[in-house]
Amino acid sequence: FQYWCGDLFLQARKTPKHLTFSGTTWTQEIVDMIQHNGDTEKCKRESTYKRHPFLEWFLAEQPAGLELAEAMPSPRTIKTHLPTQLLPPSFWEQNCKIIYVARNAKDNLVSYYHFHRMNKGLPDPGTWEEFVEKFMTGKVLWGSWYDHVKGWWKAKDKHRILYLFYEDMKENPKREIQKIAKFLEKDLSQEVLNKIVHNTSFEVMKENPMANYTKDFQGIMDHSISPFMRKGTVADWKNHFTVAQNEKFDEDYKKKMSDTSLVFRMEL
Ligand SMILES: *[C@@H]1O[C@H](CO)[C@@H](O)[C@H](O)[C@H]1NC(C)=O
Ligand SMILES: *[C@@H]1O[C@H](CO)[C@@H](O)[C@H](O)[C@H]1NC(C)=O
């Protein structure tokens, strides 16, 4: 989930952008590599968190996302998980470029659950059963997944939004990276494109200390419980949902998603 902008709050020619549990860090790395024409040395200048301020993030132990964003020179690339209705109006007014990455609800839920387990800065997720219930009722941080993906899907008809799917990115990363480059108005050579595909693959990113969240949030994130870069696959939900849970989830999903043309692939 991510943003990109001509201006954030203050000065002209500042540029934000964002990403999530649905491929945020992944897309951030892709965008950073595109912006630096595939130069991995430049992309190693700082951790993901420092390269792309997380707009609404505030934990006493870390510099606040907003502070980092305000200190950043233009053009800025900013991360947020905010739903459309909470996005600061200036993002719309300034016609920011926004990249939104959506991931199917079940994998998103699984990823979110493990992220809560390893991140002490977030509320205790409770048991798996309890967390499924919280997710379905939207009682999770950043609110209802259903409203979130639908809200941004609707917004894309009126604003400069590139709406991507995690499943498409897994299926054909090269194609999706090209889409992002086009959206950012960057021409990439085949060589650079291939390099970006390689260096933003799950296996390489997991070992990239600037992207795997081991530099920041020490004492907050416990990678021994569950690494930040956990699996990066599609359909891992099958290893988590019971048959009964899956049926209940599907039934509820149908109702909540009946008013949108948005379609997700739960497996490839
Ligand atoms: C990019 O990939 C190359 C080749 O595998 C590797 O040597 C390098 O460490 C990677 N860079 C980053 C930042 O992951
Ligand atoms: C993060 O990257 C470092 C450096 O490659 C590696 O040693 C470590 O195992 C990675 N950590 C996680 C949790 O993925």
UniProtKB/TrEMBL annotation:
<dbReference type="InterPro" id="IPR027417">
    <property type="entry name" value="P-loop_NTPase"/>
</dbReference>
<comment type="similarity">
    <text>Belongs to the sulfotransferase 1 family.</text>
</comment>
<dbReference type="Pfam" id="PF00685">
    <property type="entry name" value="Sulfotransfer_1"/>
</dbReference>
<dbReference type="GO" id="GO:0005737">
    <property type="term" value="C:cytoplasm"/>
</dbReference>
<dbReference type="GO" id="GO:0008146">
    <property type="term" value="F:sulfotransferase activity"/>
</dbReference>
<dbReference type="InterPro" id="IPR000863">
    <property type="entry name" value="Sulfotransferase_dom"/>
</dbReference>
<keyword id="KW-0963">Cytoplasm</keyword>
<keyword id="KW-0808">Transferase</keyword>
<protein>
    <recommendedName>
        <fullName>Sulfotransferase</fullName>
        <ecNumber>2.8.2.-</ecNumber>
    </recommendedName>
</protein>
